[in-house]
Every structure is written in C-alpha cells, then in structure tokens.
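protien #1 (seq + structre)
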Amino acid sequence: MSSPILSRTALATIVPALLAFASPTMAAPTPAPKAAAATGGDVLPFKATEKTLPNGLKVIVVPTGFPNLVSVHIPVQTGSRNEVEPGKSGFAHFFEHMMFRGTPSYPPEKYQEIITKAGARQNAYTSDDLTNYYTTFAREDLETVLKVEADRFQHLSYPVEAFKTESRAVLGEYNKNSANPMQKLFEVQREAAFSTHTYRHTTMGFLKDIEDMPNQFEYSKVFFERWYRPERTAVIIAGDVDPGKAIAMVEKYWGGWKRGSFRSNVPVEPPAKGAQYRHVAWQTPTLPLVTVAFRAPAFSDTRKDQAALSMLLSLSFGRTSSLYKRLVQDEQKVDQLFDFVPNRVDPTLATIGARVKKPADALYVRDAILQTVAKLRDEPVSAGTLADAKSANKYGLIRSLDNTEAIASTLASYVHFERSYGTLNRYYRVVDSLTPADLQAAARKYLVDDAMVVNTLSHEALPAEVKNLPKLADFAPKAGDATFDVLVQKSTLPQIRFKLLFAAGSAHDPKGKEGLAALTAAMVAASGSRERKIDEVTKALFPLAGSFGEQTDKEMTTFTGSTHKDNWDQYLGIALPLLVDPGFREEDFRRLKDAQKNALVLDLKDNNEEEFGKERLQSNVFAGTPYAHPVLGTVKGIEAITLDDVKAFYRQAYTQGAVRVGISGDVSDAMVASLKTALARLPGGAGLAATPGIRGRMPGGIDVEIIEKNTRATAISFGLPLEVTRSHPDFPALWLVKTWLGEHRASSARLYQRIREERGLNYGDYAYIEAFPRGMFQFFPNPNLGRKAQLFEVWIRPVAPQNGHFALRAALFELDKLVANGLTQDDFETTRAYLMKNVFVMTATQDQQLGYALDAQWYGTPEFTRMMRDGLSKLTVADVNAAIGKHLSSKKLSVVVITRDAAGLKEKLVSDAFSPIAYDAKKPQALLDEDQKIGSMKLGIRPEAVRITPAAQVFAE
C-alpha cells in the first residue's frame, strides 16, 4: 500500500504531470448507461460508458483498445481533508491499510489467494482528498475481482488484535517517512500555513494521533460506516472489457451496498494575515532545503485560476525556465528546483522549492525565487511560450496513456472530484483557453506577501538573514535593472570570457544597405567609446591582455570579451562602454566602411577563390531570401550605408530583450552582477523583428554558375538547401553522414581518400551540413553561427583547370553511391565511435563551450555535446540511411566553379564529354578502370542551367 505524501524525489518527478491537472464538473446521474464518445476537443480518445446505480455508486467503463488486461480503480472521496474531529487525523490513510484485513467470506489469506491466482498487481494510496484502490489483472478474472472487491467494501471485518497490529505498522511508516527531510519540511509548512482547515495535517496525520490509534478501534468502525459508502465511490473499469457486461457485474455485486447519511463540514480556512517563516533543524547531515509557498485555489474544471497558477509556476520554475538554467545548470547552486500546485478539493498551497548545495547559498536561492515571483506579477509570459507549454502538457499527458493501468490511474486522479469521466477533458479545455493575461492575473491574485510561507531545513547553520522575510515589492525590477539572465559556466580558469549574443545579423540588413549589420558591429567593437577613442581603448587594454571583438553572421552578432579575473573591474570599465556608450565617430566610420568593402572585394573575391566560391554557393542556394547576400554585404550596399544608418541600426538591434549573455571562468557572483549592471545601460525593448522562415531554392537538376576569373586553379563547391538544423531530429544522422563523406581537414573521410589520397588531384575535399565561414583557416567552425536554414555542401579544393570536369564528376560519383546505397554497418559504427569522442574535441576551448551553450539556447536544444552524444547513441544505420534518402541528392544540386576558361568548361559540362585524367605515377588498374567510369559519367546538365558570370559582377549589388 502506498501513501502519496510527496517525497523529495517524488516532487521532482511528479510535478510536470501534476501541472496539467485541475478540476471537475459533473453531469447529472443517469438511470441507464450512457456512452460518452470522444469529441474533437477531448484529450481522452476513448468512448466511455457511465452509469449511476440507484444506491449512488458511479460506474465508469472505458474500453482502451489494449488486449487481455483490465484495470479496476475504486476512488473513494475520503482523505485527510475529511478528518475534522480532533485526535482523529491520519485515519483515512490508516483505513487504507485496514481495507486489506479481510471479511467473513474472504479472510486476508483467501482474498490474497484469489488476487494471486488472477496474476494481479494490486495496491492503494491515500491523499488529502481521496483513497484509491486499484487492481490490474487478466480480463477473464473481472467478475471474480469485482466480487471480492464488492465484498470488502460492504463487509469489511477485523478483530481488535489486527487493528492494533496495523496501527503499529502505520506508526512504523511514519517513522520511516520521518527520515526524509522533505516530508518533515512539508509537515511544518502545513502547520504554518493552515490554522483551521484540515489540510493543516498531512495524509499521515499528526504524530500524537498516530500514536493513539491502537485505542481507536471503535472509532474505526464509525469511520468505515461514514465514508465507505456508494454515493462517495466510483468504480472505474478500463481495458479489454465489454461495457454492458461489466456494468451488469457491478450491479450484481455492488447494487446491494447501502447509501450513507453522514454529512461533514470541513472548516474553511480564514484569510492569511501575514507572511510566515519556519525553520527545521535537521539532526543528521543533509543538504539544505528552501521552500516558498503561497495560498493556491481549489481544483476546478470550469474556472481558470488553478490551471493558470499551475501553468505559470511550471514555466517559471520548471526544467525549461530561466531560473532552472541559472541555479541548476549554470551557477550550480542547487541540484533540485521544483514547483508543485496540487489538485485539491479546497484551496491549498502552491510550493516552489530547491535543494541547495551549500548552506551559505540558502539566502541567495530564496531571494532568487522571490525575485522571480515578483517579476511574474509585472511581466506576462509570451504567447508563444504559453502555447508551447500548453502543447507540452497536452501531448505529455497523451504520451503517458500507453497502457490500460496508466489510463485507469489517470482517470482516478480526476474522477474522484465529481465522479465524472469528463473532468479531465473539461480541465484541458480550461488549459487550452489560458492566455498570458490569465497567468498574470493569477500571479497578482495569489502570489502576495500575506499568503507567503517560507520554510528552510538544514543541519548546518544558514545565513542569519534568511529568517527575515522581505516584501515581494523589494524584488520588483528597478529602472535600469537588466532584464535578461546570465548563463554562467563556472570553472577554475582565471581567464574570464563572456559572450553577448544579439539577435541581429545580416539577414536584418535593409534592402539596399547590405552589410549594415556587420558594419554596425564593427563600429561597436573597433571605433571606441564616447569616453575613449579606439587607440586609447587599445592602449588601456594592452597591459591587461584584454580583448573585445565581434562576429556577425546571418542571424546573430556576438561580442566576445576576455580578461584575467584579477583585472575584471578595470577591464569592464574600458570594454563595456564600447557597447553601451559607443563613440560613433565619423573618422572611424570611414575607416571601417573602407575596411569592410576591401574585405569583400579584395580579401574574398580577388584573393581567395575557395571562400569566394563557398560564399557564392550560399547566395545561389538562398537566392530571394535574407540569406542571399554575404554577411559583408554587397559593394553597392556598403557604399550606400551612412553613419546615421549605423546609429539607427544600433538603437534597434542592441537592446536588452535581444541579447543572450554567457560568462565562463572562475566567475564570482559579484562579476555576474557587475556585468549585468553594465549591460543594464542598453536600451529596453525586444530588438529587431525576427527574420521570416528561411527556405532555400532546390534546383530541378544540376544548376551551374561558372565565375570567370583570371586564376591559376579551379575551385568547386556544390550543394543543396537543408531544412535540418541542430533543432531537427535528423541532425545527428546527417552530421554522421557528412563526417563519413568529408569531415573537415580529416584525411580518413571518403572524398579525401578518393580524390586527394588516391588520385592526388588537390589539397583536400570536404562536406558540411552547416555553413562554415573561414573554413580554410581553421579546423573547427566558430560557435555563434546559428541559422534557421542550412545547406549541404561539398567543397572541392582547387584543382588544375584540366582536371576540373573530372573532379566534379568524381565527387558526384561518390555522392551518388552514398545516396543510392547508404552507409554500411561498419562505416556507420566506425564513424559514430569517432564522433562520440570528437564532439569533445570540437568543443574543447573555453570560447567553444560558452559559445555552443548560447547556441543551444538559441536553437532551443540541450547542450551540444550532450545532444550529439545522446542523438548518436540512439541512431541506427537504418536511421542514417533514411536521413540520406530524405535530405540528400546527387541529381539536384547548385554548383559554383571559379575558373579562367569558363566557356571551355561550360562546353564540357553541357556536352557531357568524356573527362580524361592523367597521373605522374603508376596507378592500380582498378583505379584506372574506375576513372573510365567516372570520366564518362553522364551528368545531364542542360545548357540553360549553366551561366557564366564575370567575377567583377559577383556581389556588386
């Protein structure tokens, strides 16, 4: 028998499921069975049959579609709430035990023998409002189970000796639970919160009453006669069952059960009169506990209050909340953070709790909770966040209904309120109707000082200030306070690094001003502050070995700062004004504008065919979208930008609502606070409007752009658009594919082996499923290059012009085999084993770890290494090959080639002429035979699908 007086572990586990649950309203009893079919708005997909017997017993039959098994749940509307008489607390739970003590017809041994023969799993539990008995068994034993259950509910009998024995067992259960700090804390919390209502005691009851139970034999009979009556009971039969036959069985065995007449008035709790604090001194070593509770509304399936408050606290303190990330993941001050708004018949308590790692942090954690609570009253949640939470609640519940016992158990937790099958469906309609305003209204109504109860428990001394309860208004955001959280990666490294990731990138460039996002970022990082010119900043940072730089990409701009912890305060005073109070001098603007134009025209187009080709491929794949132009912009766009454009973009883009902040190293709380204080000078607001959904252009065949340029070699890039980003379920599979095909700078990859190693055509050949700017200069991509759409790309490093046609065919030959055949089991396992370890290598630096953590926030994914290792570990070769077939093609590609003889190459491509290859050294005959096959491979490129563009025209406008 179980008694759900929530344990510490149970709270952390059960809260997400409870968040969804709220209240019932019941249809009037009907004299005949009534089948309720699921409607479009129902979360329960079953057709239930309900009938109220003449004696008041409610019968609910639910065929679940699962074969062979039946689960019977019998919720009785009696719990610790009903224990209104002094000295009788704990009796509902105690009686749960006594219900297994037998009847004259079925003594305990005989009863247990029947249950055992049925192969049944049986138990019971008691809560504040109900006692539920449940049995799951083979369908052929339904009549037997209903018969013996009806007997014990009507004819329970036990001698005084058995009563006294069981009372000692209950005391033993209390003693067992008393070893759990969380149980004791909740006991003290209830005593502080309630003065009158029976929720003042837990389901176990007061200790003095439990100790006196052996003397309450006569009262136990009274309790049974009062509460175990048909009008307070429902019989739920779920599983492989015929409703008509099942109801007939219930009528046969339960129809003679007599109604009761007892009425009990549960005392109403008076309004709270002030905040309460209680501390529990724990006698043995344990981690400190901190809870903050407020009066909460009763469960209802028609009114919004309880559902709204439950949803609000789940969003604010659950595993997806900012506070959870801060306290549990980033600062690691607590190892558990939970919220609990139970479904109760009467007004109850909503609790927020944390288990703190160090006693000295108890005050900090309490105040972090209170600060979050205070914010909830002033700042509504976003509609998108609420919609996501409602979806998660709904589908999380549906996901749990995967077996008959789970279905019956879930029903029992709602049915008991008004003995109605429809309670759960009605409640979820209430949840679906919630708005941000409803949640904020609930916060303002219930999260108030007078209704607050704060509890702590510890073995060691806590900060003395923890007993002094501040007002919630003390935590309300003040003017200038930062409105963002800080991701903290605490380590022993004395070098402090922070990143400020703004949702502002080249995709936000206004038409005709392409390059504005990049130039604005450069003006922030490299043009000085209002106080210091850039040469003065450089000189001031030199002895500190401090740095402050920028990186702009399509969707984001990231500023990264670094200094030794000893120099933090001095560094912050020099570097942060660059962002929050920029100089924006005309001379710096002219200098940086010229530098950006030169970077586009000279460094990219004139001096680097490989990066030029890759950038052009991006432009072609995403033509017509905000991703179509390079981050650097276009020549015409850069020339059109004015200093006023930069200032306007700065004001719109670099706001508190648009920034994600992360810091790593041996970071102190004071450092985090000072960083937030500095950034609080940024303007408020949400920042720039989000970019629209990005979708690349999928070619109908092989489209080729040949960029004609006076160059010694031929550079080739080709690819196609991908909908797969890090938030897509196929990301790990495609990551594995690109690694096998062309891992960057890895000599073991397929393309490298076939084109460079075996044939010596070039320096290397690689594949990607994410953009990799500046790839020729580094082994791993930078973090903070998040995009809403990506591309699959193959980069063939420069080859001799006469080998360009063959090199393209060779790469397509390998890609075609990959798409047609997929990976072998051996290739899959070898590549996965490599990646399971390599993922740590590619995120090894302080900068990478912090950057990838912010990227995970942006994508809404788990931390990158964990996400990848989890994803890779679950992959099969079939999953990988399915992803290849779904997302990759060797027949629909965009190709960019940079070469001198553009017309000659076009003729070769459209004529599908044989492409010969010659070697300086002797090659194996098998390779030469394959060369013949590759050289004659038909690409089917149409003349109109090949265009020649002079290099000077590319990215001109």
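ok now protien #2
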Amino acid sequence: MPNPRLDPDQSLWGKARGLDEALPPYPLVRHLLDAAAVALFLWDEYLSESQRRCIAAGLGLPDDLGRARLLVGLCAGLHDLGKVSGFQFCNERAAGGLSAGLVGDQGRIGFERFRHDVAGMRAVPAVLAVLGGEPDGLTEEELEAVNRIAEVVGGHHGCFHRFEDIYAGPAYQDLLGGATWAEQRLAHAAAVFDLLGAPRLPEDFGVSSAVLVTGVVILADWLVSQESYLVRRQRSLEPGLRQHFARSCRDAEQLVREAGLLPVALKRKGFAEAYGIGAGPNALQGSLASGLEEALSRARRSAEWGQGAGIVVVTAAPGDGKTEAALEAERVFARHFGTRGFAFLLPTMATSDQMHARVAGVLARQEGAGAGLTLTHSMAWLSAAYAEDDASDRNGRVLVCDGDEEGDGEPARHQAEMRPARWLRGAKRPLLAQYAVGTIDQALLAVLPVRHNALRLLALSGKTFIVDEAHAYDPYMQVLLGRLLNWLGAFGAPVVLLSATLPSSVSDQLVREYLKGVPARSGEDRRRRKALVQQSFGVPYPGWLYVDGSTGECTQIGEGKRQEQARQRHMRLKVQVEPVATAVGRHGEARLAVIERVLSPVLEGGEGCALVVCNTVAEAQETFTHLQAVASAAGPPVDLQLLHARFPGDVREARTQVVTSGMGRSGPRPVRRVIVATQVVEQSLDLDADVVVSDLAPLALLLQRAGRCWRHETWWQVHGRPGGRERPAWAAAEGPRLVVLDPVAGGGAVPKRWLGVYHEALLTETSEVLAERAGKWIALPEDVQELVERVHGDRPDRFSWADPVKSAVWTAYLGEEAAQRAAGNFAVVPPVGKVPALHALHREGSWEEWDATTRLGADSVRLLCVYVHEDGRATLDAQGQVALPAAGTGGRPTVSEVRQVMGRTIPVSAEWFRDATDADLGVPAGWAEHPMLGELVVLRQPVRDGVAGRVGIGRHEIWLDDVLGLCRA
C-alpha cells in the first residue's frame, strides 16, 4: 500500500446539495473530521457513564476509557470513507471539480453500483491494515475487530450489510477506483487517524458495543450534516486540517446544545415538592427508594458486580403511586450508574399525552427545563404541547446524501417549559432526548429489523427504561418487549416495569429475558447465569422486586411494608353482576335498562359521578344517546360526557381534558357527571368515580376499570376532600361498587360484536369466576393477584374431557397466543448473544419503519371527514368556514395546514373500506405526493340545507356526528 501520509485531495467532496453553489463543495476529509470531533464530544457529554463503560468493555478496554473514546471518534471519522468511490460522480457539478489524477484513474468504477455505505464497509479493512498494523501485520483478533469497525461504517445510514473477507481483495477494491483512489482512501483515513493521536486498534469489538458505537456515528453524522452548519463552515474554511479539526472540536458543544442533546442535571427536590402532592412517599414508594439504594450499594461491594444495573418490577393497584415509585427508582439508578434521564413508555397515545403533562410538571419543579422533554408517538406533533409555528428551519435540515445516489432530486405551562429543541422533534430523534414519554411502539422499533434501530438502542441504553401498564401487551408485543429487555440487559441499562394486573408467568419471562442479555464475565459466571434464568421471580402484591443484573441477587419489599401499603390502600369492592340480555328472548334485563337503573340516583337529580365503560364504540354511542334522552326528561341537567377513540384527534384531546377535569385528586369535583367511554379510560387516566358500570371484560381489565372507583378515597380521608364535598349518600351507603353487565351469566353467550375485541375464553372464564364469588367482596389489593392468575395465568387444567366445548374454546385461545408469539419471534431481531455479525439486525432489502409491525391486528388507516357543499366547495367543517387547504391548487400545504388536517383525522380499521368500490375516498390532487396527507382516506359527506349526510360504503353507512363522533351503521 502507498504512503499513509499522502495529503488528502480536497477536490473529493463530502457534501454538495443545498450548499453555496458559488463555492466548491464541502471537502470530504473535512466532513470526516467534523464527525470525529462531534463523536468525541458526544462521548464526553452526551453518553452516560454506563454507556461509556459498556462500549469500553465491548472493545476489550474496561480500564482504558480514553482509548475507547478515540476509537469511537475513529469510527465516526471513517463513516463516509466509501465516498472515495463512484459516489463522486453522482453530482455533476461536484464531479466537475475532481482533480485530473482522480478522473484519469477510475479503475472499474461503474461496473457495479453500490451505495457509499457499502463501499466504506469494503474499504475500511484495507486502510486500517496499513494504519494500525505492526511490521508483521494485524493479529487475528485485530483483524476481526477491524472487520467489525467495517460493519459499523457500513451501518451509518441505518442498515447493516453483510461483510465478507473477499471484499478486501483486489477485484472488489478496483470497483472503488484505481490506485489513485485507493491512495486517497488511505490519505483520508490517515488524516483522521493521525489527528486522533493514532489510537491502537482494538483486539475485540463485541456486538452490543458495536451497536452503540454505530448509534454514536449516526448521531454525529446527522449533527454535522445540518445545512446551516455546512454552509457556515463552507464559507470560512481553515487553511489546514489541524486548524479545521480544532474548530470542529470547539463547534461540537454548540451543535449538541442546539440540538437539545446536552444533558441537564436536575435540582433534585424532596418527594412532596418534586411531585407536587403535598405529602411524603407511601410505603410502596418509600420502601422502593430505600431498598433499591441498599441493594445497589450491596451489589457494588460484591466481587460478582459487573457494573451493570438490573430490573425492577412494581405491582400495585391503580392509584397506588407506581409512577412516582418508578421515578424514585430512576433517581437511585442515576446516582449509582450515571444514567441520564428516562424513557417512560405506555400502551396508547392518549395515556402518553396524559403522562407527558404529568412528567413535565415533575421535571419543571426540579429545574429541568433546559433538558427538554419529548413526546414520542406517531401523532405527537399534533399535541398542543408540541404546537409550533410554521417557520422553515434550515438548522434542523440534515443533508445525508440519500437522494444523491438514488438520482432523485401549569400543566400547560410546565409542558411549554419542557418543550424540546426543534431538532429533537425530527423523525427518529425524540428518544434521543434526556427525557422522553411516548408509546411503547417507538421503543419496540429498536428490536425490529428497520433502519436506524441502532440509533434507537443508543437512545434507550443510557436511560432508565420505564414501561407502564406492562400487562397491557399481547403475546406478540411481549416477545418484542422481552427482546428489547434482552438488549438492554446487555447494555447494563436499568429497567422498571409497572403493572396493576401482571400475571406471574409474564413477569417471570420478562425478568429472564433481561438477565439472558447480561454478558457473562467468565465460564463460572456463565454457568451461574444459566441456572439463574431457570428460576422463578415472584413479585409481592402490592410491592416490588429488584433483580440485579450482575449478581442475580433478588431484593423485594419487606413484608411489613407490603402490609402497610395494603392497609393504606385497602378497599372492599362490591362486584354487582347484572345478567343482561343481548338479544330478544335471552335471559336477563335489557342492557340499557340496567344502566339506567344503576345510574338513577344521578340521572334523577341527585349528586354523584359515574363511569360507564363499554366494550365497543357503537355501544358507547348507543349508551350515551339513551342516557341523554333519559337525563333530559328526568330533571336537573347532568354533565354527560362521551369519550372514545373515534373522534377527530383535536376533538378527542379536548374531550379528554374535559372528562378528566375535576375527576382527579385535587378537584374541583363536578356535582353531577356521567362519563360514557370505551377502553380509553382503563389506563393512566386519573378518574375517581362514585360507581363504575362496565360491560363484561377479561378479569384483569375489569380490575383496571374498577381502579377508577373511589380511586382517591384513602387520600381524601387523610387530607380532606376537594371543596369539602362528601360522597353522595347513595354511593356512601353502597361503598365502592363495580357493576358488571354480563351477557354470559345465566346461560347466555358472548355477543359476536365482542369477539373481535376480547377472546371468548377469557370472557367466559371471567364470568365463571365472578359467579363463584357472588355475594362476596373483592378485597383490594389483597385478592388482585389471585384473581389475575385464575383467568390470565398459566394453568395446566385448561383442558378437560368432561367439558369439551369449554376445552375447545381454550385450545383455540392458546393456539392464537402461540401463533402471536411465533409471529413475534419471526419479526424480531435475534437475542444479543445470538448475533454473529451486525447484518443479522437487518434483512435483505431492509424494512422501513412504516413496513414494521409493533402490534398485530393494527391494520388501520387514518380517515378524514370533509364536507362537500351544494356549490362544490369542500371544507373541514359542516358550516363551510374552514376550507380544505391546498386541495387542487397545486400548492404544497404548509406545516400548520398539515397539522390542521391531521388533527381532524380518525384511526379506523382498513376493513371498513374493503368493499368501497363506488365511493370516492381519494385525497385531493394537491395532496397526492405529500408523505402524510397522501395516505389518508377521505370521506366526503354531502351537505344539504346545512345538514351533513351519510356516505354509503358497501353495506354500511358512515358519517361523522358532532356529538357521537364517527358512526357506522
């Protein structure tokens, strides 16, 4: 190979599109140095202590973090080395400036087309063999580590590629250009290598470490590829590369800060002040904070301690303060492991929105405003907390050259204070923030074979990973969650799982998956771990369990504290089963008649707050309409509210605020309110009802719904009620009460309309359990785990020859669960210990995120209801005041117009439109090419005499009602 000290030819360009065309394109060598400089700063200031240790250990340098830091900088500095190839000819203007030596020695460029990330992967081993080799060449271990560096370089555009040793051969190298091009690849690499101090190459580079380094490389590349930064540097290039690198190192802090990535240390406050609740921790919260502190201190003194964290499982009834318990655990983990921030993940967008406001308050009270708090789900940008103006932002535009090679051109105040930098709200970036709240789907994408999954793993690995409502995920999602925990175990990231109704079989499996990912440090440790993951991990209820990832030691809430928590939250719940008829001639009273009878104290003029939870939107709409008629004829007005998932997004957000206002701990409590809702109120919404009425549902979900009954009674007994108003006499006489509308009781059957919502096996088993407990109270929280295990746990007695019908139902249910688990195992990336090479994290052709499935059965579309008036105008409102933006003008909708349109959309099943052969459901011509608007289904409702009509779709009619939401009949 030629002399590695040859000067880099700066006619080789790294960035051209979007820059000042009056100047030469941005030289490649300078872009490589920019990325290396920012990677070093990210190591120093962005990565957590635990991430740095994990990377260093994976490089075989647990005691030499300084060298590990330089190697990370080297990987970043080599990321675009593959642009010294045919890439240089993909921009005609930039190619015109190439030096004569390069143009005259093209080798076999053009014989085979491949992207510059692949070219870089194939080029790296040859240059590192020269730069890092001793006189006798690289050792076998160093060669393997160099090949792993090549994989990292090949993955910097988000997708890893298969690496073969043959790529280092002359035939493949000639495809990247002739000898002059090879000399320049070496010269560019040498410039980076020398300015980093010529770090000695590693002899090891483990998979988990390489994934994190890839994430750092991607992040550094994105930061230095921002258009505004490149233009600024292009216009004032330093004369020498050493001066250029020095300036890049100085610029790094500003780039990271402006992106919102510079961590902020919270001013940690006492419990009451931090959470704004006016009291100290309860037994659950206090014991977790102190017990976890003791466990971690003990683990650090152990010879088996491997410097990784562990997993906490918290199980307690709704309203027991699990959120605060998780944040207290995060405080302890941060102190011991140097983790920075947390990701708080939930099952739905609605619960995420609510938690975002809650967490924003916690952080704002502890002076965390500079850190920013992202809301991460598919519609987060529509949230009021994320409202933005429509100004264009060159600072956030990242020029990654993808197109070049393709050839194609108070709560509100707190949320405002915690709004993150705009850069963090870009695609795939929100989880990178120090604090993030969102749906679990955003995290699960980290273990699906999609582009930039390594970046998501980097984002999650330096935080405390908190999963709320851990019981709410089906077997497919549990497989994905388990695999994510496996990778987090490898990174030594702390995990907290929260649930009110988690079967022990599920918690067992999730804990084991985490432990399987923790790397063994010796043969003896490997044998010990193999035995460890075979054992069972029982979680006290209510209580918590911590399993240390390094030592395997289990620590749990003390029995005294567990009993104290149970006493603090003890409640005797009356379960009133009402057999209801779902068809003419069936046994039981009509469903609506039962609801009317139960709610009569409120409907007929009395005080009180009631919650009715329906299994389907259609039943919620029917129930609301019936109660509306009853209330209007009965007496004093009732605040009757309807909430479900089929309202336009902006309407649903506003309705959620109205429904929850006054129903929480602080009031002011409504005098007379009835809320009719669907499953959207089961999780994470702070509601306290005097009585809860519910359709039959699987027992765990019934207990979730019951958690909205007398939710704050214990607190109010100690601290006083909002406004001093006592519970109404009728509610006080009955006590906390869950009324279950059971169509199965007394020999009935599960309604067909429910079978797409819940499995028949769970509903019939729940009905039987409730029948066995007829006349008995349910002691909360004491009876919860037993009831959950009875219906949802793994039981060997599901099949019985004496009851073949029931056995067949259960067999079908277990078969469906097995099929879901199989689908999950097919979709997910391999466990960290079974990844021989990084390309195993992707598949041929790669998946984009929109092709990935984080939930089975989630085949949905976003429906936009528009109104077509007699004069032909199409508007977003029936009154004709809000015109459809850019619909046929040929203009591109502005960001605010897109937000306005998307805020009116409704997620619905794609099945609704399978038979839509005659209806015009296409988007307006001006939207067809828009990445969001172009995918909408548009329902055009005719407006005649000021009244919006229905639209026929196959055998059904669909329309949007101002009061009821989207209807289908």
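Confidence is low (pLDDT under 50) at residues 389-395.
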